[in-house]
Design a protein that fits this description.
The structure holds two protein chains of two kinds.
Chain A (H helix, E strand, L loop, with lengths): L2 H18 L1 H21 L13 H31 L2 H6 L5 H31 L7 H26 L7 H15 L11 H7 L3 H13 L15 H22 L9
Chain B lengths: L1 E12 L2 E12 L3 E5 L6 H8 L11 E4 L9 H4 L2 E4 L11 H9 L8 H7 L15 H13 L5 E5 L7 H16 L3 E5 L3 H7 L2 E6 L2 E6 L12 E6 L5 E6 L2 H11 L9 E3 L3 H20 L1
Helix pairs in contact in B: 3-4
Classes of the chains: A mainly alpha, B alpha/beta.
Amino acid sequence: MNTVALGWDRTLIELKQYIREKESVFFSFTFPILLLILFATIFSGQFADAGPGMSAARFFLPGMISAGVLLTSFQTMAMSVATERDDGTLKRLRSTPMPPAAYFLGKVGLVLITSLAQLAVLLAVARLAYDVALPADAGRWWTLAWVFVLGIFGGVVLGIAWSSLATARSAGAVVIAPVLVLQFISGVYFQFTSIPHWLQSIASVFPLKWVAQGMRSVFLPEAMASEEMAGSWELGRTALVLGAWAVAGLVICLTTFRWYKRGTT
Amino acid sequence: MTAISMRRLRKTYGEKKAVDGIDLDIETGEIFAILGPNGAGKTTTVEILEGFRARDKGQGEVAVLGQDPARPDRAWRNRIGIVLQTTSGLDLLTPREILTSTAKAYSTPRSVDDVITAVGLEEKADQRIAGLSGGQRRRVDVGLGIIGRPELLFLDEPTTGFDPQARRDFWELIRSLKDEGTTIVLTTHYLDEAEALADRVGVIAAGRLLALDTPAGLGGRESAEAVVSWEDEAGTRHTVTTATPTAEVSRLAALHDGREVPGLQVIRPSLEDVYLSLIAPHIVAETEASS
């Protein structure tokens, strides 16, 4: 079989394992969806007089999509690769004639399928349960597409890179801690400009803030751009930052990836 | 034909010489057992042969199936099977799922059903591996090692956790692989396993090959003195150590006018006795060195 066919076969194996692991399904797939429902319910009163078309669900949708991107790409990758390196799965795969690229294609396939499914569910819940208007123009859908793809790609490569810092036992803490902190400082759960300015500056270094801002540009009214840090959606800068992280992540991956756990082979 | 050939194989970690100049040829089609205490260079040697670990640069020569294992490529991996230590990474899959997927990486794999039958997992083929016993999981590992129809198979402690019947079944499987022409390199702590399976045995300790022989001949075991013991009328046990045990047994038989000699035993040194005496000096040396 060629590398692409093997990569697809790995995708199916990865999906089977993902779906059968109830914890991963809950903490990476279902979590943003539950939070959207929760936030839309809890904060619905605060948006009662926000004007036509504005609602808690619409306000939180971009953040939940961004959290989903982070969880299904970065968190899934970092945790699974750290565990597989530790428990010898990577070594076993390395002992077969499977080309290394097939393993990574399998991971990318897993993340693409789960994150697209998650995005679809989030959009469906927002549209059907909370009557959130989805973008009508092609331009906004195009923004959604490239922000999503750059965000996912960056999450995958950075997750694989980050996995080198964790072991199976420490993966929970080593991976979840930065994921949680980033979500809180990147404007996923709160309005970004409501957090202290110095924290905004720190968050601006990392990709999640830019994914969330890009998503807001897709789903929020044009007028709300004035509430952003720079007073605009900054789509050009978003593309630059996300692109830079994607390239940096890929380089770190290629230079630091290990098939065997430290201290063994 | 040699499947594996190494000359002056060396691997050093800082000051420590993990492998300190091993010369060895393993013939095509033989079952070769590598014995040795933990931390004596056995695993390092095997991992160099498996293409997992680099030997010291510029030192010695190694060829595995005619190729330097320091540069493992896809075609070479296609001809080699490795049964690694059990992992928990397959818990969420079934034996059939992981065997089917793994088979796809090889050019001429065995049929998944044949492998499932060969390792005796028919009953468990479609159950999650998480629910399998230690011995059953080990059979999955063995199945993964042979699914690609390897010419050369590495087995690392293959029967750990097997019950006696499962071990006998496993030995039969290994013999049938040998009959098909597979070369097998076995590392084990079970000396009866080495004795039952191996054509030749190599003992590695302190990074060196201490002994290389058939299991029967190791350490001069064939010609070693035997211990003959029996009981007299009063029930007291007598022992005689002799190079000619047959003569001693004949003498006893004559003494008893052809009746059964009570409690008669003829004991030759077991492979375990020979092995322990071979590695004993190195165990002592290591303890002294570290104290």
